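Please review this pair:
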Amino acid sequence: MTYTLDLADEQATAELGRRLARALQPPVVVCLVGPLGAGKTRLVQAVAAELGASEEVTSPTFVLINEYRSGSAPVYHFDAYRLTDEDELLQLGAEEYFAGHAPAGPGLVFVEWGDRFDRLLPADRVTVRLEPTGETTRRATISDPAGLLTQTITAGGD
């Protein structure tokens, strides 16, 4: 299943994140694709908030992985932008996280720039592609070939 949504502003991106939080069940890997500033981290912030995480959600660009454990399900947030090869991703323990064996247990694993290491990501993953279409607008394309989303993701209300 593939969904395409037009997002009018940052609030619409956040609403998409809230909807994803309600539609995904751990363990699951979500590959986030899009240029710098497309809203990848904003999406993860909204997911973590919807799950009740109390930690401040920030981009893991320099630390490579952030863990948010205080919500109803752990959120693991990888950033592959600065990684130079597959070995660096594996050294972070990515395979354990992807398999649901992360330190805080199975969670929602988000991998920004995951398309750079497509071969290492599980085949049964969700991919969210965010593309700027204007100064504040985005297009989100969500691919869910394995049917991991427990509900339809739409642009409007529930």
